[in-house]
Design goal:
Chain A: This is Phosphatidylinositol-glycan biosynthesis class F protein. By secondary structure, chain A is mainly alpha-helical. In chain A, 70% of the residues lie in helices and 0% in strands. Chain B is elongated, with a radius of gyration of 36 Å. The chains are: A mainly alpha, B mainly alpha.
């Protein structure tokens, strides 16, 4: 049972990684003059949209969490709306945090905001898919020993990895190498993406490695 | 104590206090000074980083590398006109950075990093130099090329064409610009000295390295330039082509490797220069030799501080051998006299030239001069026949040469030398001190006797070793090197410490080793945030903490607005807030900012006062409290007046000018006076405790005291601050049979922090006065951030449920220090010399300082303001959690009956808890100080290592060395202030204990 789930997780995560790689490669054939560095904003949009759709589809197909008890249509709609609101709020929150960490306040608002959207796609959207608009559950998952399934462990790892990646991505910005990828927010978003991908790959491996130690409490 | 004895590791740079040039003309032939002028004009073409291999032409080479055999024109000149042209190896002295080389090429001395005699604020050369001599003698100097010269020689040039030099990627702007102006200028003839500084070769080296096709192109361009330049020259013109330094295989320079110091020099004129043909292998000449040579050839005096030697063969002229030799002898004589005078003047002001060598040089010189005089007399008397004369002339020239070379060697040895051994020694010393700090802070929980043994004996050891070394030096009659002695002493004392440590606690050592790993994990700067994730149960606390962290982030972000710029970042704009208000044109904005600043000051005072009142420290009628009540607003008033006067437009006040002059001086003095009075009061009587003693007057005041104040005091002053000494008084109560006689002390709970806060506020006022007006915003941020940090620390600790209340965790210390260095930048400073705020020296003074000490203190206080504030307030990290215990108990308070205070006392002890266990308190203070010093020392160590490893780096004199200097100064300032802060706390402690004993006596 556990092995099978880990395999499913691995497959899902590899699919995510593959999608991100595709978003970097495929649009170059369709759109003229598309490069990740040159038309970074376009790539940011494409990447966030693709990753979010894939996540939603995966969530619908795999159904990692237990279905809620009441599932009337109106309830689903309200849940969906709540999710949307949460996502938007998280975008704004990320924007504020990024500005607090030193992004320009007035110039290049679009770039900052798209970067915030990307970050929320990598972190908040996953949480929303997995846990629903339920802050209590989020706090539980992100506290010590709070994960209750391998999906939630994977969620922890990927989220932390993407945020750390974004943070490390900011390191080369002040250096004077004059490289095109040092422009705000390219290095950060690339860092976040690489962190996310690394998290996706690390998570199943780590869970596999520690499967003896990992014992999940039931609710 | 042990740690402040850190040796500054880089002995590479020496102080260079040159006496100002006091040049008197001596008896000179008309038209030229010192020596007859040989050329009326000279063209100096400096090709940056022209390595000797670039200029050397070897026709035998079959497959030249990109940089070889490109300057074929020079070779052509040398071979076709051997008496007109010659190529030399041009030995540059390290450091081979362009600016230092330009200084060397014009002053003829060995510029080191800090020229103490000069003004730090500008880079301009203050010493006597070739250009100054030329200008002084009425020559027209035209310059084109690298704009470094503009900073070095402001307003010296008759005409100049500067081009930006900073962009290393740009190979062509400077060169093309020069080429555009060069030939028209040469043809116009309105010049006596023309300097053209080409940068393309150097930039090409930095960008591509020497082994690149671009380099070939660049050198070919230079070749063409020289070819057409020679065509434009007249007969009375001397052409000098020089490289200021070489480059390594990677195209860098700055160090002292063979390839970097090996540049090329090419001399040419259309009239014959040399008596003989060129030697097989090009001769090597030192770079400083160019200065006296050019000076004498052009007939101007040699710059005062030159230590170069004339290139004699250029003076041989076209006469016979004897007259040539006589001529050479003459210039050697002049040169030697000048060098001797310089050495003499230099040794009067500085001791770093070894005395016995100077003596030897002196002997050499006087001997040579005497013989010269004899020889001249004999020549005039025609008593000598040519062959003998020739040999004697030759030997005399040899003696002069020897003298000049030895003089230069002595100077070089003592000025331009890195001491790798000493550097490594200094580094290990710092590292060992850091380690010691760390271990000591880890062991602080050990017994007290441990301290006595471990710290006292090593100190004794150090003293003994120092005395022994001193005696040894005295016996051997060597020069006493104080630095070495002190460092040996420090090393010995540390060895002693480690010895004791190993002997006494061999087991602990292993423990500490293991702890090291464990702590490495903890010391993540994001400490507070890590803890956030851990504890979901304390939701409310977490929200509070999150808000605090957000506030901290906001503070950090806002403080970014106050940054100063480095000159390496051209697109950076310095913050608006740095310039003084007086420079603002817009009166409305000025008034607005002024009001804002004053309001901020007032707000700060109000905040401090309300804080003190909250903790009940403002109730007594002691002089200190009175000062806090009335003195603070007065200080603020003074500062506000000073700012108003200083920022008002100069001419607007008209008749009041004299009054303004007085006020500009008077107000700062008032602030200084008030602040020092406050600090003195604080030292004399640091207790801000108001004691109500109801024992004696129990009968009469009983009813009003129990009735009214108990409610009033409850609400206004919040009873929890009252620490009642229940143990004794309760006993006495019981004895007397009533509970009414108690001693109520207001504000005892926060005695220590109150004193510290008052001191901090005073210091803050002083420092604000020294900064420009609008930086008070930054100071407000500083105080706010410190406050927030303290709160975060307290909260995080409350969450973690720390078992050890007497130790401050590492993350708190590190974040404290990070904040200190952050506000170093945020108060508008940068670790470079032009960024120092020099006007701080003139706050309250009128451009006249009798000594150098006072302005140095003022400027230092300005520069290290944040270091001072944070170091003094360091003990607050320990005290704050105790102070903040109050709010938690406050909630319980109202429910309880006043009579039940007995139990509450245990909760409301706050800082009095520290009194309970005095040993623990002192060790905790010591531990905190050691931790702080450890983190500081680590920072310093990193800087020292960077400066040591990168001592060959291109930017070392611009970036790493100043950073190192600032960092070490900051270290010293911080340690002193830390000591002051801790001693203040100790003073309060003493006062509290005397107070208690008095209370018990009563």
């Amino acid at each position: 049972m556990k092995e099978a789930e880990i395999r499913r997780l691995l497959a899902a995560n590899l699919l995510c990684v593959f999608t991100i790689v595709l978003t970097a490669v495929v649009p170059a054939f369709i759109l003229d003059g598309f490069t990740i560095l040159g038309t970074h904003l376009a790539w940011l949009c494409i990447c966030s949209v693709c990753v979010s759709t894939l996540n939603i589809i995966l969530h619908l197909v795999l159904k990692p969490n237990l279905t809620p008890k009441r599932s009337s249509f109106a309830h689903k709609i309200s849940r969906f709306l709540k999710c949307c609101i949460y996502f938007f709020m998280s975008c704004i929150l990320f924007h504020a945090i990024i500005v607090l960490y030193g992004a320009p306040l007035i110039e290049s608002v679009t770039e900052t905001f798209l970067f915030a959207v990307l970050l929320s796609t990598f972190t908040t959207l996953q949480c929303l898919c997995m846990l629903g608009p339920n802050i209590q559950a989020w706090i539980r998952v992100f506290s010590k020993n709070g994960a209750m399934s391998i999906w939630e462990s994977s969620l922890q790892i990927t989220t932390i990895c993407s945020i750390l990646g974004a943070w490390f991505g900011a390191f080369p910005i002040p250096l004077d190498w004059d490289r095109p990828w040092q422009v705000w927010p390219i290095s950060c978003s690339l860092g976040a993406t690489f962190g996310y991908m690394a998290g996706l790959i690390i998570a199943p491996l780590w869970i596999h490695w520690n499967r003896k130690q990992l014992t999940y409490k039931s609710r | 104590f042990l740690l402040t004895r850190i040796e500054l590791a880089s002995s590479s740079s020496c102080s260079d206090p040159f006496v100002p040039p006091s040049w008197e003309r001596q008896s000179l032939p008309p038209g030229s000074c010192w020596a007859p002028q040989r050329f009326s004009k000279a063209v100096l073409v400096i090709i940056d980083a022209l390595r000797f291999e670039f200029a050397h032409f070897n026709p035998a080479k079959a497959s030249p590398r990109p940089y070889e055999n490109k300057l074929s024109f020079l070779h052509h000149l040398v071979t076709s006109q051997p008496r007109h042209a010659r190529l030399y190896r041009f030995r540059a002295d390290p450091p081979t950075a362009t600016m230092q080389r330009i200084k060397g090429l014009t002053t003829g001395s060995l510029p080191t990093f800090i020229d103490v005699g000069s003004n730090f604020a500008t880079y301009a050369i203050q010493e006597d130099n070739l250009l100054a001599q030329l200008v002084q003698n009425g020559r027209r100097v035209i310059f084109m090329g690298d704009d470094t010269w503009e900073g070095l020689f402001p307003k010296k040039f008759f005409r100049s064409y500067f081009f930006p030099s900073f962009n290393v990627k740009d190979l062509h702007t400077v060169d093309d610009g020069i080429l555009q102006h060069l030939y028209p200028t040469v043809d116009s003839g309105e010049w006596d000295m023309l300097i053209a500084h080409f940068l393309g070769v150097d930039h090409c080296g930095h960008k591509h390295g020497p082994d690149h096709a671009e380099m070939a192109k660049k050198l070919t361009q230079m070749n063409e330039m020289l070819r057409s330049l020679v065509e434009h020259l007249g007969n009375d013109t001397l052409l000098l082509v020089a490289g200021d330094h070489g480059m390594t295989e990677t195209g860098d320079h700055g160090g002292d490797s063979e390839k970097e110091v090996n540049a090329a020099l090419f001399v040419y004129s259309k009239t014959p220069l040399f008596g003989t043909g060129p030697p097989e292998e090009p001769e090597a000449v030192a770079q400083v030799n160019l200065v006296p040579t050019v000076a004498l050839l052009l007939g101007v005096p040699i710059p005062y501080s030159n230590i170069g030697e004339v290139m004699a063969e250029l003076f041989s002229g076209d006469g016979d051998a004897v007259s040539a030799a006589l001529q050479q002898l003459l210039v050697y004589h002049i040169n030697a006299k000048q060098v001797d005078r310089f050495l003499h003047a230099y040794s009067l002001v500085a001791q770093d030239l070894p005395a016995e060598q100077l003596q030897r040089l002196q002997d050499l010189f006087s001997g040579a001069v005497e013989e010269h005089a004899q020889l001249l007399a004999q020549v005039q008397g025609l008593t000598l026949v040519p062959p003998e004369l020739e040999s004697r002339l030759g030997s005399l020239i040899g003696r002069f040469q020897l003298y000049l070379r030895e003089a230069r060697a002595v100077c070089t040895q003592s000025w331009a030398r890195f001491h790798p051994l000493r550097m490594v020694g200094g580094c290990t010393l710092i590292a060992a001190s850091c380690l010691l700090c760390y271990m000591a802070s880890e062991l602080a929980t050990a017994s007290d006797s441990f301290y006595r043994s471990c710290l006292l004996y090593p100190l004794l050891w150090g003293l003994v070793v120092a005395v022994l070394l001193g005696l040894a030096y005295a016996f051997t009659q060597n020069g006493l090197d104080l630095l070495l002695v002190s460092s040996w002493a420090a090393a010995a004392s540390q060895l002693g410490f480690f010895w004791y440590w190993w002997g006494r606690h061999p087991k602990r050592a292993r423990l500490a080793g293991r702890k090291l790993h464990w702590d490495g994990r903890l010391t993540v700067p994001e400490g507070p945030k890590q803890q956030l994730l851990g504890f979901s149960s304390y939701r409310r606390e977490i929200w509070y903490l999150l808000c605090l962290v957000a506030m901290l982030l906001v503070c950090v972000r806002l403080s970014g607005f106050f940054h100063q710029c480095r000159e390496e970042i051209p697109q950076c704009r310095p913050s608006l807030f740095l310039s003084p208000l007086a420079s603002l044109r817009n009166t409305r904005a000025k008034n607005l900012f002024y009001l804002l600043c004053v309001a901020l000051l007032a707000g700060l005072v109000c905040a401090v006062r309300s804080w003190l009142r909250h903790y009940g420290n403002l109730n007594s009628s002691d002089p200190l409290v009175l000062f806090v009540r009335w003195g603070f607003p007065l200080v603020v008033l003074c500062i506000a007046c000073y700012w108003a006067v200083a920022s008002s437009a100069d001419d607007s006040l008209g008749k009041l000018q004299e009054l303004v002059q007085v006020a500009v001086v008077a107000f700062p003095w008032a602030v200084y006076g008030l602040a020092s009075v406050g600090l003195l009061l604080l030292l004399c009587n640091p207790m801000t405790v108001f004691a109500k003693d109801t024992r004696e007057s129990a009968g009469s005041i009983v009813t009003p005291y129990l009735g009214v104040p108990s409610s009033e005091v409850d609400f206004l002053h919040v009873i929890p601050q009252i620490y009642r000494r229940m143990q004794e008084s309760q006993k006495s109560c019981l004895e007397r049979g009533g509970c009414k006689a108690t001693v109520a002390a207001y504000g005892l709970g926060s005695v220590y922090s109150a004193a510290l806060v008052i001191a901090l506020t005073l210091l803050g006022f002083l420092l604000m006065l020294l900064h420009s007006e609008r930086l008070s915003l930054a100071f407000l941020l500083l105080f706010l951030e410190a406050f927030v940090l303290l709160h975060i620390h307290t909260r995080a600790r409350g969450l973690a449920g720390d078992a050890e209340p007497f130790s401050v965790p590492w993350y708190a210390v590190i974040s404290w220090l990070l904040a200190a260095s952050q506000f170093f930048y945020s108060t508008g400073h940068q670790p470079i010399f032009p960024a120092i705020h020099w006007n701080a020296a003139f706050v309250g003074f009128h451009l006249d300082h009798s000594t150098n000490l006072l302005p140095a203190v003022l400027v230092g206080a300005n520069t290290f303001a944040s270091h001072i504030l944070f170091a003094v307030s360091c003990p607050l990290l320990l005290l704050w959690p105790f102070v903040c215990e109050m709010p938690s108990s406050q909630r319980k308070k109202p429910k309880k009956e006043p009579r039940e205070e007995l139990q509450e006392v245990e909760e409301h002890m706050m800082e009095m808890r520290l009194r309970e266990s005095p040993e623990k308190f002192s060790t905790a203070l010591l531990q905190l100080g050691l931790k702080y010093l450890f983190v500081l020392g680590t920072q310093l160590l990193a800087c020292v290592c960077a400066a040591m490893i990168l001592r060959r780096h291109l930017m070392v004199w611009k970036v790493f060395a100043p950073k190192f200097l600032f960092e070490s100064l900051g270290f010293v300032v911080s340690s002193i202030c830390l000591l002051l802060g801790i001693s203040l706390v100790m003073r309060v402690d003493c006062a509290v204990s005397t107070w208690f004993s008095q209370l018990q006596l009563r």
